[in-house]
Design goal:
- Helices cover about 25% and strands about 20% of the residues.
- It has helices spanning about 10-15, 35-40, 80-85, 100-105, 135-145, 190-200, 215-220, 240-245, 270-275, 285-290, 295, 335-340, 400-405; strands at about 25, 50-55, 70-75, 90-95, 115-120, 125-130, 145-150, 160, 165, 170-175, 205-210, 230, 235, 260-265, 265, 280-285, 300-305, 310, 315-320, 320, 325, 345-350, 355, 360, 365, 385, 390.
- The chain has a 7-stranded parallel β-sheet, with helices on both faces.
- The N and C termini lie far apart (about 65 Å).
Length: about 425
């Protein structure tokens, strides 16, 4: 396709389409359209503009206190840039399953006037791609009246349900900048031991779901001796690439999308972005599809690896807040914990270090901190893993659970527990 560049505008010109009182979706993670958000922050004539989003990356000038009354962030899953605004009451948080977010847009329960996204350049047929983050952006661009885009020459063109026709884009600017990256976290003795224990639970032929961070990376680094693994996940990062290149991940036993990695978004480094670019092995879909429990349960030996902030002695898992202070979000943890539990041979796993704050605070606690949110209920929890062991709470009484969890807590706190 030729001639599309003649429609390009500056970021400030593009963002003139936003008017007071509008509700906007903002593309997230590595796809955060920073030049457009910066242009929006330069608008001093706006009031009561709502910005709905998942985890945003990079600088977030629109969340500066000077913009109170102009812009209000509504996090459906939050990240570092939104924690302080939420704590100070300048922004909002919606606790919601990741699988349910697209439905908020398509049903108009959360009606969108504008979708602010980052896209790949159009192909020969005039189709751009949502690139690294299809997740809720798929439903957003399908539901919003206006689409405002940053078309970035470095945004990967991804396969699956990621296409957006250039004719559907109301206005766009063109950039050639690096995507926001998330470097691999260094491994510690604690995360290495947790990785070893969790890897021991992964069977040949299993289908994996994992998040991002030191523990998932430690697990993936220890799966090189496994055979014929599959991946059906809401997201993945760099470490999975090594398993694909080594022939460990083949997706040959998946009954759905056999031979392909299925995901909703990716975040990591340039190496990851180059891996997913125009790669038919990786199929991106909306998070209402990837996180559908009825679909997840059909995967053989579905092994879901998720994290937690606290686990109490009854098995309640807090994963989105530190006390009443919002830290992240519900995300897809419950979608995959339940889906893995219903999978034949599946294993739902919660993995966490036994302590925080340099070893001074136990993450295995008698009771969750006041105000803490329960993301995975004690009725849904199965495997819990710390560096001191792996225990399965499914079918255990409250007394048995307490004894098992105490056995994997840090030795210094077992007496108190």
């Amino acid at each position: 396709m030729t001639g599309w560049l003649t429609r390009a505008e500056s970021p400030d010109e593009v963002m003139r389409r936003v008017h007071s009182g509008m509700q906007c979706f903002v593309h997230g993670a590595s796809a955060t359209p920073t030049p457009l958000l910066d242009a929006l922050a330069r608008r001093t004539d706006l009031e009561d503009v709502t910005l709905c989003h998942l985890h945003l990356s990079g600088p977030l000038a629109v969340l500066d206190p000077v913009h109170v009354g102009r812009f209000r962030s509504v996090s459906l899953f939050t990240g570092p840039g939104c924690r302080v605004p939420i704590a100070e009451g300048r922004a909002d948080y919606v606790p919601v399953f990741l699988s349910d977010i697209p439905g908020l847009f398509t049903s108009r329960a959360m009606p969108l006037d504008v979708a602010i996204v980052q896209l790949s350049p159009p192909d020969a047929h005039g189709y751009c791609s949502l690139g690294t983050s299809v997740d809720a952006a798929r439903a957003a661009v399908d539901s919003a009246t206006i689409i405002l885009a940053e078309i970035n020459h470095r945004m990967p063109r991804t396969h699956g349900n990621a296409s957006v026709p250039i004719q559907r884009v109301t206005a766009f600017t063109v950039t050639d900048r690096p995507l926001h990256e998330h470097p691999i976290e260094p491994e510690t003795p604690v995360t290495a031991q947790i990785g070893e224990l969790v890897a021991g639970l992964v069977e040949d032929g299993a289908t994996l779901q994992m998040g991002i961070g030191a523990i998932p990376n430690a697990v993936l680094a220890r799966l090189m001796d496994k055979l014929e693994l599959g991946v059906h996940t809401e997201m993945f990062s760099d470490r999975l690439v090594d398993l694909v290149h080594a022939g460990v991940v083949t997706n040959s036993r998946k009954p759905i999308m056999r031979g392909q990695i299925t995901t909703s978004f990716v975040t990591g480094t340039r190496r990851l972005f180059e891996f997913v670019h125009d790669n038919p092995l990786v199929s991106f879909h909306g998070c209402d599809w990837t996180n559908d429990t009825l679909l997840i349960r059909k995967m053989p030996r579905m092994t879901a690896i998720n994290s937690a902030i606290q686990v109490d002695l009854t098995g309640q898992v807090c994963a989105d807040s530190m006390g009443s202070r919002v830290y992240s979000g519900i995300g897809g943890q419950m979608d995959f914990i339940r889906g893995a539990a219903r999978s034949e041979g599946g294993k739902p796993i919660i993995a966490l270090p036994s302590t925080a704050a340099g070893g001074t605070v136990s993450r295995i606690v008698r009771e969750l901190s006041p105000g803490a949110g329960v993301v995975t209920t004690r009725g849904h929890v199965h495997w819990v893993v710390t560096e001191y062991g792996a225990v399965n709470l499914h079918g255990k009484s409250l007394r048995e659970r307490a004894e098992l969890l105490r056995s994997i807590a840090h030795p210094d706190v077992r007496g108190d527990l």
